Amino acid sequence: MSVNRKEIQRARMLRYFLDAAIDVMEEDGIDHFTIRKIADKAGFTSSTAYNYFKDLSHLKYFAAMRFTTDYVNELPEYLKKGNNTVESWLYSWECFCKHSFEHPKIYSVIFMDSLGSVPEDLMKYYYQIYQNDILDLPEQIQDIMMEQSFSKRSALYIQSAVDEGFIEQDNVAFIADITLLIWKGMMNTVMNHRRKSTKEEAIQTTLHYVYRNVMGIVVPEKRREINVSF
User: Fold this and answer.
1) What are phi and psi of 123, to 5 degrees?
2) Scanning 93, 117, 168, 181, which has its CA 20 to 30 A from the CA of 41?
């Protein structure tokens, strides 16, 4: 069997298990997600499943990624709302918060949970299998979506704001990190029921803090060009 045929066969088996995992997640929920259920649904044994996924967290990660399609498809429209990189980035946060707080457990699996592996490798591997998920996105956005680290993903995008004169280079990594920490903090609060907030309130609170932190590091004379408020 040639290498190409082996790769095709492997990709086919991965899809069998991923399709089964998605069915299990839809039917039983992410809290009742087991290798055995997935293997039974796919028509194979649990040991066969472990030949393709090192542990349950990897399979859960890949299955969760399938539930981000609406976010990926809607993101370009939000980016188009901005008249400059900072505005577009703020709108991208609005899109992300809208979808992540709608499905907090899904986005927690992807961006917060321990995976027992290098997240960047999992993200790239996923998009090798499901390339069509990002083919309709602009090339720049495709490169950003391939980056699993959300703070690095943000930094890649807002780098253009430096060229546009909105942000100093020294602040790129800071604003990417602090805004991610804001989201993680609110997501953790919501998931652990530490505050009585509706989904809409959680979204607005997150966006408000993101906005205030971003505006705090935008070059003062450029702030009047930012016509976004949360």
Assistant:
1) -60, -45
2) 117
Would residue 193 be called left, alpha or beta, if left means φ above 0 and alpha means ψ between -120 and 50 degrees?
Answer: left
Give me the domains of the chain, ranges plus CATH numbers: 3-53 (1.10.10.60), 68-225 (1.10.357)
Check the CA dihedral 55-126-104-160 and report its sign. positive
In this structure, what DSSP letter does residue 45 have?
-
> String of b and e for 18-52 (b: at least 16 CB within 10 Å)?
bebbbebbeeeebeebebebbbebbebeeeebeeb
N-to-C CA span, the chain: 57
* CA–CA separation, 109 and 115 (whole Å): 8
pLDDT tens across 19-76, in order? 898 899 888 888 888 889 999 998 998 888 888 877 788 888 888 888 888 988 898 8
- Our CA dihedral for 171, 138, 98, 60, rounded to 10 degrees, sits at -100
> DSSP for 133-192?
GTTTS-HHHHHHHT---HHHHHHHHHHHHHHTTSS-GGGHHHHHHHHHHHHHHHHHHHHT
Give the number of other CB atoms < 10 A from CB of residue 167.
Answer: 24
Q: pTM for the full model?
A: 0.82
